[in-house]
Amino acid sequence: MTEKEQSLFDKLKKDGWFDGEEAPDLLASFDLSRERVTPPEWYVSQNKKKNKKEKQQVPAEGLALCEGIALIWPDRVSLWQNGVKLRDVSLSEGERLVCEITEGSVSIMAAKSILFTSRMKSKTNYYLLAKRFADLLDGKEEIERKSDERSATCIKCGRPLFGAQGPVCAHCRSKKRVFKQLWDVMKGSRWLILFSMFLFFAVTAINLLAPRYNRILVDDYIEPRNDALTGFIVVILSILAVNLLSRAVSIIRSRILITASNGVIIRLRDTVFQKVEKLSVSNVSRHTAGNLMHRINNDTSVIQQFLTNQFASLVEQILMFIGVGTVLFIYDWKLALMILGPMPVVFFLNMYFHKRVRRVYRSQWERSSRVETFLHDIFSGIRVVKAFGTEERENERFDKLAHDECEVQIRNEKFFAVFSPLITFMMGLGEILLIFYTGYMCLQYGMTLGEISMFTSYVSLIYGPLQFFARLLRSFTNMINSASKVFELLDEKVDVADVDNAISRPIEGTIELRNVAFDYDERNAVLKNINLTVKPGEMIGIVGKSGVGKSTLINLVMRMYDVDEGEVLIDGINIKDYSQESLRSQIGAVLQETFLFSGSIYDNIAYAKPTATKEEIIAAAKLAGAHQFIVKLPDGYNTKVGERGYTLSGGERQRVTIARALLHDPRILILDEATSALDTETEKQIQDALAILIKNRTTLAIAHRLSTLRNATRLIVLAEGTIAEEGTHEELMAKKGIYYELVMAQRQMLSTKKEN
Amino acid sequence: MNNMFENIIKIVYLTPENATFYKTGDFLALKTNIDGEEKDHGIIKLRRLFPFEELWRDISVLTPGNEEIGVIRDVALFSEAETLLRDELTRVYFTPKITKILSMKEKYGFSNWDVETDIGKITFSVRDTFRSVHSFESGRVIITDVDGSRYEIIDASKLDKASYRKIEIYL
Q: CB–CB of A614/A630 below 8 Å?
């Protein structure tokens, strides 16, 4: 039970919903009116659960979503709406609740009459809900936590959380939290930033002196036509000195701030990158590569720009504003009031438009992220685009995306094109008032020219901050938007995380799968109730039709995903207790997708073991059958591969990846169609070499070409998510089951080929 | 040297004890005596396994049909045949050594180079300069031009200042 469910139950109990009875088995929110879409909210009673979690108070908004609530006991169902009981339905002996799934909704029926219906926003939620309900009706008590995380919704707005940590979604994330996180990121550079702030004080104080000297200059020397040259020169030199000093301190301040803000951003980028690396495969697959890159590159640089340019000015301008404001008030409060008169209006205008501006920036972000995702997609899939000759179509798609982005930008600019001059004009009003006032004072009360000059200087000083605040809305909103995108990623809950005190130890290689079940999206179980024990040194061949879950099985052993049910043990210890680094550093994998990083062949092989000697690398390459083609390349092991490099053939790439896995010297070797791209002869050579290598190592191998698995100690045949057959090649052939059919089919295919 | 594949796969290393290089006409030829088996391979080819890093070490010796006969760890091991091997490698990996960069101008992604080399003045063009200039820790720089020809600077730090400044940003 989630904390949210727990507290909802508690609240319902306190409000007397259960009349002192035992809490119901299932609690579901539903949509009686069938007019509005209710976010799926299903709650399971805690009396079936063993592990109680700490309580957490859920704000009342959480309940507002559940307009209709169904409380379900084994023998009756109680339906409520808006706190009023609608009816009680008793289930007669043997009668069962039936869950009917139709497009977009799930209905619960008893004796063919619909008790209630719940509609879903998204398909995933819909299947998730249906499955969960069906399980409960079947009397299945354990419901996996994973389901809750996926279907969890924001307690403020009811939108799905999409794996965000905490009870609120990104939309509802408060600015305060963003600031706090930003402050946390500044750790390490805080002193530098504080010092540069102190320098701001200094600059402001120095700047405040200048108008005073102006007044002395005008009132004491220019207006009375005083010819005391020494004094005059002293004043001029003082003005120069003040200016020089102010610039000098500014330079120091800027340099410190740039160092500090760059430090902050480097740390932020590193943190974001580390976070992305920590995320599980399923976490990462929820984002697109373009989107992630956008966050790491663009968003952090938006924050950096803000820190370097705006943040510096922000403090300076605030100080200046307070300083000059105080001086003005001291000299003449009426004048000060006149100048500051338009301020509240400007402030309220800013507040009023803030939401709108934020929305515009959000959509601008979304649009530009879409463009980036598109580009990333097209560039990595350029071969497919070319192969299908869809350049023109892609051009149009890009054009549309670019236009979309442009449109939002234009809308944004158009808004600011009106907003900024308007604000500037409002501020300008103060200036006109000033001219009027000083003119009036001069004519009526003999205000000196020097005083007028001083006031004008102060006013020009105070207009700096005012104009800055007018522009601030824009950059500030942009920064907050980017920051929340970055922190949203940092806050993302890692699906596959290390436990506290995760262990690191050398493994021997016993693999055990106990009642393992797994599915990717709750709709269809990929694996069900898998039980398998592999002893150290055994080679297990995994066979079965496409999509039967062979790769999933090895992904679970590598802990790319966590199992939904059951457990995977290595050397008798649950793999969740190992640190992921320790676990994976002892597993070597040659996967279906042969990925080479851009760099040389040498770099790619040495990737698994950067300390490897050249001799070892040559040996690994030779063992993998790669050396033979590498020597023919003009640049040998220094040949650039990967993006833009020398394009290796599928078989060549595969051999390089095999060499990489071999150099890794793993205790557990995983071969997922490792030799599928090789011709039979080369495959046989590599197989023979591998046969020696995999001695004393546990090996899991997947192959469609069944001859690849002839060295296997045992074979397991997967069918419909379970292990259908298990045994040696001979045993399975004698059994004449699925494996026999697969072998026969392949033999037939081979003989047909030969005949042709 | 600790090699985890030692017992699994054997790399044939050619040494003066098991290999004799000789010249037939303009070409280099090889006789081997490996594990008591004498063989005259006739004309052979030399290939650097790490042409960017090792000039005279890790040389693969191939038959004209690209079958590997063995690997030379270091040509210096062959006191007698060393010159033969060096000459052959220099011939195969013919690379002018740049001694001075007279001019280097980059425009629209292409750069035009005007250099002095050990074989005289050369002008060449390079596409995507940042990716075509490879520098190594030893100071060695290899430049690949639009035609795939290679040029080498043995030690960039030993170039004259004016030349060095021209390529500094690409290193």
A: no
pLDDT digits (tens, 9 = 90+) for A137-193: 554 433 333 333 444 555 555 555 554 545 556 566 666 777 788 888 888 888 888
Q: Are A171 and A157 in contact (CB under 8 A)?
A: yes
**Could you tell me if B88 and B144 lie in one domain?**
no
**Does the beta carbon of A606 lie under 8 angstroms from any beta carbon of chain B?**
no
DSSP strand pairing (A565-570 vs A511-518)? antiparallel
pLDDT-based confidence at residue A568 (cuts at 50, 70, 90) = very high
Is B92's Cβ below 8 Å from some Cβ in A?
no
Residue B137 at interface with chain A, using a CB cutoff of 8 Å: no
Q: How far is B93 from chain A (nearest CA, A)?
A: 9
Identity of the residue in A614, A620, A635 whose CB atom sits nearest the CB atom of B51: A635
**Each residue of A694-743: pLDDT tens digit?**
777 899 999 888 877 878 889 999 988 889 999 998 898 898 888 888 88
Distance from CA of A148 to the nearest CA of B (A): 48
Interface test with B, best of A601, A614, A639, A694 (most B CBs within 10 A): A614
Query: Which of A602, A627, A635 to probe by mutation at the B interface, max B CB count within 10 Å?
Result: A635
Domain membership of residue B122 (yes or no) is: yes
DSSP H helices in A624-735: 627-630, 650-663, 680-693, 729-735
DSSP-derived secondary structure letter, B125: E
Indicate whether B112 and B76 sit together in one domain.
no
Q: Which residue has the higher pLDDT, A447 or A136?
A: A447
Helix (H) / strand (E) element for A425: namely helix A391-445
Residue A684: per-residue pLDDT: 80
- Residues B1, A619: C-beta atoms closer than 8 Å: no
A623 touches chain B (CB under 8 A): yes
Domain boundary among B92, B118, B143: B92
Structure tokens at B157: 């730090």
Domain boundary among A487, A520, A543: A487
B162: distance to nearest CA of chain A, Å? 30
Percent pLDDT > 70 in chain A is: 75
The predicted model gives A44-58 an average pLDDT of 32
Which residues of chain B make contact with A630, given a CB cutoff of 8 A? 49
Given B92, B111, B136, which residue is the final one in a domain?
B92
Assess whether B88 and B120 both reside in one domain: no
Q: Which of A363-367, A689-693, B80-84, B118-122 has the lowest mean pLDDT?
A: A689-693
Does residue A128 register a pLDDT over 80? no
Give the model's pLDDT for residue B107. Answer: 84
Based on the domain organization, do A658 and A674 belong to the same domain? Answer: no
Compute the distance between CA of residue B142 and CA of residue B132 in angstroms, rounded to an integer.
8
**Same-domain pairing of A548 and A683:** yes
Residue type, A167: P
Place of tokens 């402001």: A204
Clarify whether residues B17 and B87 are in a common domain.
yes
Q: Tens digit of pLDDT for each residue in A624-681?
A: 888 989 998 888 998 888 765 567 888 888 889 888 888 888 889 888 888 777 887 7
Burial of A586 (0-12, 13-18, 19+ CB in 10 A): buried
Q: Which of B1, B8, B53 is facing A615, going by the closest CB pair?
A: B1
CB A256, CB A312: distance < 8 Å: no
Mark yes or no for CB contact A616/B3 under 8 Å: yes
In the 8-state DSSP scheme, what is residue A111? T
Decide if A609 is inside a domain.
Answer: yes
**Dist CA A369 CA A19 (whole Å):** 53
Domain limits at B159? 98-170
Tell me which residue range forms the domain holding A608.
594-665
- A691–chain B Cβ distance below 8 A for any pair: no
Provide the pLDDT confidence category of residue A425 given band limits of 50, 70 and 90.
Answer: confident
Q: Which of B2, B8, B51 sits opposite A636 (nearest CB)?
A: B51
